[in-house]
Design a protein that fits this description.
With about 110 residues, this protein is mostly helical. It has six helices and no strands. It is globular, with a radius of gyration of 12 Å.
Length: about 110
């Protein structure tokens, strides 16, 4: 779980420092493209992963938060999954920044 938190923290720092364009006010299609570009720039191994899988993973955290889950709940789900903790932190952190920025402060908590 510590590695996931570090991944979230990295994304939060990059986005709030202006290094990521994931939080801009843009239409959904543009947000999708910005998210995909951002995560692939951060981890080159994602260049061979399909867009749908990456988008679904990034949006899953937002869907859970919108449904009433806490950030801790989302982190535990990632920790219990088979996904690498660093990669999970990147995808979910960038997903929150891109698709549900209203939760961005919870990434920094």
């Amino acid at each position: 779980m510590k590695k996931i938190l570090m991944g979230f923290a990295l994304v939060a720092v990059l986005v709030t420092a202006g290094c990521g364009s994931a939080v801009s006010e843009t239409p959904t299609q543009d947000k999708d493209a910005q998210y995909l570009e951002f995560v692939r720039d951060q981890d080159s191994s994602l260049r061979g992963v399909g867009d749908d899988l990456l988008l679904d993973t990034g949006k899953a955290g937002c869907e859970a938060l919108d449904a009433g889950a806490t950030m801790e709940d989302v982190l535990w789900e990632v920790a219990r999954s088979d996904i690498d903790p660093d990669l999970g932190g990147l995808l979910l952190g960038a997903g929150v920044a891109a698709f549900c920025p209203e939760y961005i402060n919870e990434l920094e908590a």
